[in-house]
């Protein structure tokens, strides 16, 4: 007899053993003749250049923070959604106020432009001068 | 030793082993990834204790959210020039004293508590009960949680905006 979480546990076991058995079989079958080129980091066929530890844009972190806040909001809404019908309009209003307060935050973010991805300022190449030079060269 | 105990010991082993790796690993990325298994093992223990909602929250928020944030933090804060990010040990003696005191307090609580064994029934789902409690006794706390999340949201946004002005 299995509970619902027992089924999930069986799925987890299946997932783990699927990967482990696949790796083990591949280890048994495949030939192992490493060369220097094979062991190099694969970077789309190019020679790897520079450190992989580049500093990432801070915007990723902010988006992740906003994601977690709305994640927690959804988690808090699950128990409310399961039981608000038993309380009629009162239960509904409690949830609406909760959502409105968070909607205020969402509106604030939206208005202040925090949800927009800040792109680095692009400096366009001066085409006009080159074009003038080219036309002069052609005229001559 | 029945199946329940075996599953408990599997999750306990996952939690403890990955927790030890988290603390002892020199590479901070390995530490972060082993923390993932610690959170997962704790979620499994919540399931075995019959706290289904808490375990799902553990998976959604901690494994899915906080850990990603941690990895982002690692990627954002390391120096570009140093290729290996190592974590060292500082202030060993004060840490040992603090941990020893905390562990002593925990062990004394464990010894003093009278553990009662509950019959092994299939526990009911707790999410609905939690919801009705949130709508009755703790309705103020429920709304205050929204305000707390709002504060966190605006705080995160304002931190981001200040750095944007600095870079421009």
What key attributes describe this structure?
heterodimer; A: 140 residues; mainly alpha; Methane Monooxygenase Hydroxylase, Chain G, domain 1; 5 helices; 67% helix; B: 168 residues; Four Helix Bundle (Hemerythrin (Met), subunit A); 6 helices; 77% helix; 0% strand; globular
Stretches of chain A where pLDDT is under 50 for at least 5 consecutive residues are none
Order of helices and strands of chain A: HHHHH
As for the number of domains of chain A, it is 1
End-to-end distance of chain B? 64 Å
Task: Please trace the helix and strand order of chain B, writing H or E for each element.
Answer: HHHHHH
Q: Largest interface: which pair? A: A-B, 50 and 50 residues
3D architecture notes:
The complex is a heterodimer of chains A (140) and B (168). Chain A is mainly α and 140 residues long. Chain A is 67% helix and 0% strand. Chain A has a single domain (4-112), classed as Methane Monooxygenase Hydroxylase, Chain G, domain 1 (Up-down Bundle), CATH 1.20.58. Helix content of chain B is 77%, strand content 0%. In chain B, helix 1 packs antiparallel against helix 2 and helix 2 packs antiparallel against helix 3 (52-77). Chains A and B meet through helix 3 and helix 4 of A and helix 3, helix 5 and helix 6 of B.
């Amino acid at each position: 007899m299995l509970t619902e979480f027992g089924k999930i546990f069986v799925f987890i076991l299946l997932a783990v053993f699927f990967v482990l058995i696949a790796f083990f079989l591949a280890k048994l079958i495949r030939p192992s003749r490493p060369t220097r080129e094979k062991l190099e980091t694969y970077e789309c066929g190019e020679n790897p250049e520079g450190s992989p530890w580049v500093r990432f844009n801070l915007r990723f972190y902010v988006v992740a923070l906003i994601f977690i806040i709305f994640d927690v909001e959804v988690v808090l809404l699950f128990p409310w959604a399961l039981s608000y019908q038993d309380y009629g309009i009162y239960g509904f209003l409690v949830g609406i106020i909760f959502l409105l307060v968070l909607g205020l935050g969402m509106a604030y973010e939206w208005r202040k432009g925090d949800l927009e991805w800040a792109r680095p300022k692009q400096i366009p190449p001066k085409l006009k001068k080159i074009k003038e030079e080219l036309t002069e060269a052609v005229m001559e | 030793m029945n199946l329940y105990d075996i599953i408990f010991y599997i999750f306990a082993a996952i939690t403890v082993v990955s927790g030890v790796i988290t603390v002892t690993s020199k590479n901070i990325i390995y530490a972060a990834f082993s923390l993932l298994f610690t959170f997962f093992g704790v979620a499994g223990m919540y399931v075995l204790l019959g706290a289904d909602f808490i375990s799902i929250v553990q998976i959604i928020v901690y494994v899915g959210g906080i850990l990603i944030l941690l990895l982002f933090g690692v990627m954002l804060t390391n120096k570009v020039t140093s290729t290996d990010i190592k974590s060292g040990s500082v202030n060993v003696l004060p840490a040992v004293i603090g941990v020893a005191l905390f562990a002593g307090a925990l062990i004394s609580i464990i010894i003093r508590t009278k553990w009662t064994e509950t019959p092994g029934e299939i526990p009911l789902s707790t999410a609905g009960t939690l919801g009705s409690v949130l709508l009755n006794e703790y309705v103020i706390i429920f709304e205050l949680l929204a305000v707390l999340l709002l504060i966190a949201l605006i705080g995160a946004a304002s931190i981001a905006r200040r750095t944007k002005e600095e870079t421009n």
